[in-house]
Automatic annotation (TrEMBL):
The modification 2,3-didehydroalanine (Ser) is found at residue 143. Contains an active site 4-methylidene-imidazol-5-one (MIO), which is formed autocatalytically by cyclization and dehydration of residues Cys-Ser-Gly. Its EC number is 4.3.1.3. It comes from Streptomyces litchfieldiae. Belongs to the PAL/histidase family. It is an enzyme of class 4 (lyase). Keywords: Cytoplasm, Histidine metabolism, Lyase. This is Histidine ammonia-lyase. GO terms for molecular function: histidine ammonia-lyase activity. The lineage of its organism: Bacteria, Bacillati, Actinomycetota, Actinomycetes, Kitasatosporales. It comes from the Bacteria. It is found in: Cytoplasm.
Length: 515
């Protein structure tokens, strides 16, 4: 896949292709022409005696000082150096590539005044597989993701450190030279334009949307497997019931569960061994909870799509003039990042409740305690549920919104900030946690279904989708019933099975495409 950047933004697929799959990037001729035209406006303003923010002034609270032509190259270089002040662990490669690509997207819009040669250098950096070292802390989500973007800009200058395509961190100057990329010498406004955007939090939103789309489908599958293992009824999934409350996500989740349960001989038999008028909420309300998360994801994607079409910078070149603005504020992105973390936490919470039901002999309708081989001698999945519960607890903490906080900065010039970067970082942790929680339900539900094997004598077998998932999971190293063993490798295999999309692929081999 080859990504060509124009003046009108980019797409989800383009960001994922560059960030995760190393797709090459090039700039279209219209984009190069637009950048050149905007640069002429900046050059014209730079030649005038009147101060223009970002062109011939200092930055932030220091914007009151007029900077003469002889100091402007130093000014732009200094803002990059001084703002590259990140601390903490390194940010993941895919996030940095998304951040760099999205900044290039805005520059290609022709509204920043950055020269085409700087944009070409950014594209060359991406295409060479050079990833600047960016740190966890350094963005308040307003005036852009300042420190993260500054570390990227520093690499363009041939300073600081970056990771090469071989995964080894080296001095940036060494990596640029090895790939034939000349360090950039910045001119008026260019240093500011390279670091004044919400690209980091947007990149993480795009990546999270892709991951959560997969996880919502995975949760529908594991919820259906649990319903089947508990001998529950699929009548609550009937389309006419969900039409009474017409949330699109709810209908999609219910439809997924129906398709996974099609052909099952286990559903609807809960009356055989004890009166059970209705299944518990964690089973019966699975489509309502997962569906609400799906609808939240649709909203988040709509915000991301608007941002992908945006040109976030300050000041911006518009109709031949330069104007200050506040478009760099991260509130729109920060809100949906927090919203998704709430949805992820609640989906994890209901998933854990279903798992616990499978393990409790008083509520599992005939399954052995903790799905153990010889309960008492064997503990079965007792502590796997502890691990799952610990992750759910962490997800609840991660659901506390970051965007309701604000710490004034820059001598009170930047007196309200979005904390969108922090919201994005905790959402990434929440996505990882939700993957683990769903993996534990998968592990428990598939084991429970195999422990129902005795019902086969009555002609009661799991459905085709369940059998396909069990077979694929076992082939992937997710162990089945038996005596106690070292569980961590099984759980790791289950996590990889869910996170890599193999669970969905296995189910779809029987159901066809799921929503």
């Amino acid at each position: 896949m080859h990504i060509v950047l124009g003046t009108s933004g980019t797409s989800f697929d383009d960001v994922l292709a560059v960030a995760r799959h190393g797709a090459p990037v090039e700039l279209s001729e219209p984009a190069l022409a637009a950048m050149a035209a905007a640069r002429r406006v900046i050059d014209g303003l730079a030649a005038r005696p009147e101060p223009v923010y970002g062109v011939s002034t200092g930055f932030g609270a220091l914007a009151v000082r007029h900077i003469g032509p002889d100091l402007r190259a130093r000014l732009q270089r200094n803002i990059v150096r001084s703002h590259a002040a990140g601390m903490g662990p390194r940010v993941e490669r895919e996030v940095v590539r998304a951040l760099l690509f999205l900044r290039l997207k805005t520059i290609a819009s022709g509204h920043t005044g950055v020269r085409p040669e700087v944009a070409r250098a950014m594209a060359a950096l991406l295409n060479a597989g050079i990833t600047p070292v960016v740190h966890e802390y350094g963005s308040l989500g307003c005036s852009g993701d300042l420190a993260p973007l500054s570390h990227c800009a520093l690499t363009l200058l041939g300073e600081g450190e970056a990771e090469g395509p071989d995964g080894v961190v080296r001095p940036a100057a060494e990596l640029l030279a090895a790939h034939g990329i000349a360090p950039v010498e910045l001119r008026e406004k260019e240093g500011l334009a390279l670091l004044n955007g919400t690209d980091g939090m947007l990149g993480m939103l795009v990546l999270a949307c892709a991951d959560l789309g997969r996880l919502f489908t995975s949760a529908d599958i594991t919820a259906a497997l649990t319903l089947e293992a508990l001998l529950g009824t699929d009548r609550v999934l009937a389309p006419e019931l969900h039409a009474l409350r017409p949330h699109p996500g709810q209908a999609a989740s219910a439809a997924n569960m129906r398709r996974v349960l099609a052909g099952s001989g286990l559903t609807g038999h809960h009356q055989d061994e004890a009166p059970r008028v209705q299944d518990a909420y964690s089973v019966r309300c699975a489509p309502q909870v997962a569906g609400a998360g799906r609808d939240t994801l649709v909203h988040a994607r709509s915000v991301a799509e608007r941002e992908l079409a945006a040109a976030v910078d300050n000041p911006v070149v518009v109709d031949g003039r330069v104007e200050s603005n506040g478009n760099f504020h991260g509130a729109p992105v920060g809100y949906v990042l927090d919203f998704l973390a709430i949805a992820a936490a609640d989906l994890a919470s209901i998933t854990e409740r279903r798992t616990d039901r499978l393990l409790d002999r008083n509520r599992s309708h005939g399954l052995p305690p903790f799905l153990a081989h010889d309960a008492g001698v064997d503990s079965g999945l007792m502590i796997a549920q502890y691990t799952q519960a610990a992750v759910v607890g962490e997800l609840k903490r991660l659901a506390v919104p970051a965007s309701v906080d604000s710490i004034p900065s820059s001598a009170m010039q930047e007196d309200h900030v979005s904390m969108g970067w922090a919201a994005a970082r905790k959402l990434r942790a929440a996505v990882d946690g939700l993957t683990r929680v769903i993996a534990v339900e998968l592990y428990a539900a598939t084991r429970a279904l195999e422990l129902r094997d005795g019902l086969g004598a009555q002609g009661l077998w799991p459905g085709p989708a369940a059998r396909a998932v069990i077979g694929a999971a076992r082939a992937a190293g997710v162990g089945g019933p038996g005596e106690d063993r070292f569980l961590a490798p099984d759980l790791a295999a289950a996590e990889a099975f869910v996170g890599g999309g193999a669970l969905i692929a296995a189910a779809e081999s029987a159901t066809g495409p799921l929503a």
